[in-house]
Amino acid sequence: MLDNKAEDEIIDLDGHVLMEAAEDWQRFFTPADARALEADLAENRRHWYGREGLDVTGIRDSIRERVHGAGGWDSGLRLRDMDAEGIDRVVLFPTEIGLKRGAYPASICRGYNDWLADYCSADPERLMGVAMVPLDDPVAAARELERAIGVLGFVGVFMKNSVNGRMCDNVHYDPLYAATEALGVPLLLHIPSDLKELVEDRFGYDFLRSHVLHPISEMLSLMDVIYGGVLDRFPRLRVGCLEGQVGWLPWYVARLDDQMEAYGSRPGLDPNLRRRPSEYFDERRLFFSCDIGEPYLEFAARAELTPGIQGMDCFVWGSDYPHSDAIFPGALDTFRKTSGLNPQEQAQITGTNARRLLFGRD
Predict the structure, then answer these.
(1) Gyration radius of the chain over CA positions
(2) 3-state DSSP call for residue 159?
(3) Taking a C-beta distance cutoff of 8 angstroms, is the pair 64, 21 a contact?
(4) Measuring CA to CA, which residue among 281, 301, 283, 288 is closest to residue 342?
(5) Which residue segments constitute the domains of the chain, with CATH numbers given?
(6) β-bridge pairing 11-16 and 89-93
(7) Which residues contact 167 (CB under 8 A, 6 or more apart)?
(8) What does the DSSP assignment read for 81-111?
């Protein structure tokens, strides 16, 4: 596993790859799995462009049209862009392959992880993979995570707030969480699943409605890992909630405490926590990624979540490169100019906290 580096390094905790836009990604999958993924991609394209019947080349080209840089599928260009931006290392999540299905079979997860390892091989110290695992089969998920960490050199596991009706606190996932804790890597909650499907099924796909999905997904994730006992069952597990902003966090933490006090003692409602919800922040195992240019970042960073913990003690930073809503070029410069935080506070978010989430130490 990679170790932590210099104190002044910049770690991008939320970068993305676009395997779907690469020239030959299909070679990492069986023919049947490749065909299934191509069908998923064609379905996703209808949401973005209203097109139907795209062939493999059309899908690839349509994905490439709406991103900022080719670094999502070309790791050499990714490293060039990181150098230009001043980013030392990046943690890499999937894009469309992570969206269509809540859970993928083990064979598809293995193929994706092999592709990502090949992408990261351009510089494994700087390009850090996050494993995708078969969430419907937690024992197989644990095995694939062990391979991804031990053989491929990845740094964490990709999780969703809910999959196929199971929230992330469901004991179904305990074998995966036990392996994650034992391996010393973080559980990284990213991208809504059931919530996204609920909104689309009830209201249809609407770009404006999509604005609420990520923050609400992160609120649900935080509630579940605390109230659902994940942090109690796995006392060394570190959890990152990513791409949901942070301006809501001070209010929400206070509300968790308030609701626990008001309702927690009622029969059938007591979650049997060993402390107040806010006090889990004292363990320094919860982390949240802020957006570049987020308007309430300074307020949230300086807010007191518990008497000993401010928001900035659990914030990390992500560029979201190369997605279309990311800032590129100039992500890091924009963060520095608009955050309202001094250089030491910024460094805590872009470096110190990131190392604690990834490696368990500053």
Answers:
(1) 20
(2) strand
(3) yes
(4) 301
(5) 11-19+70-359 (3.20.20.140)
(6) parallel
(7) 161, 220, 224, 228
(8) HHHHHT--EEEEE-SGGGTS-S---HHHHHH
Residue 258 CA to residue 178 CA, distance in Å, equals 31
pLDDT at 47 over 70: no
* Structure-block tokens of residue 141: 């998920």
Per-residue pLDDT of 55-83, as tens digits, reads 778 888 888 988 998 999 999 999 999 99
Residue 74 CA to residue 76 CA, distance in Å, equals 6
The burial of 272, by beta-carbon neighbours within 10 Å (0-12 exposed, 13-18 middle, 19 or more buried), is given as: exposed
Return the number of other C-beta atoms located less than 10 Å from residue 147's C-beta: 17
- Long-range CB contact pairs, 58-64, < 8 A, 24+: 59/20, 60/20, 60/21, 60/22, 60/23, 63/18, 63/20, 63/21, 63/95, 63/96, 64/18, 64/21
Instruction: Provide the CA 51 distance to its chain's centre, in angstroms.
Output: 28
Supply the pTM of this predicted model. 0.93
Instruction: Give dist(CA 342, CA 331) in Å, integer.
Output: 17
Q: Rounded to whole angstroms, what are the CA distances from 32 to 27, 87, 108, 117?
A: 11, 38, 10, 22
Residue 346's identity, in one-letter code, is: Q
- Contact indicator for 127, 92 with CB cutoff of 8 Å: yes
| Burial class of residue 146, CB neighbours in 10 A (0-12, 13-18, 19+) | middle
Position 98, amino acid = G
| pLDDT tens readout for residues 224-269 | 999 999 999 999 999 999 999 999 999 999 999 999 999 888 887 7
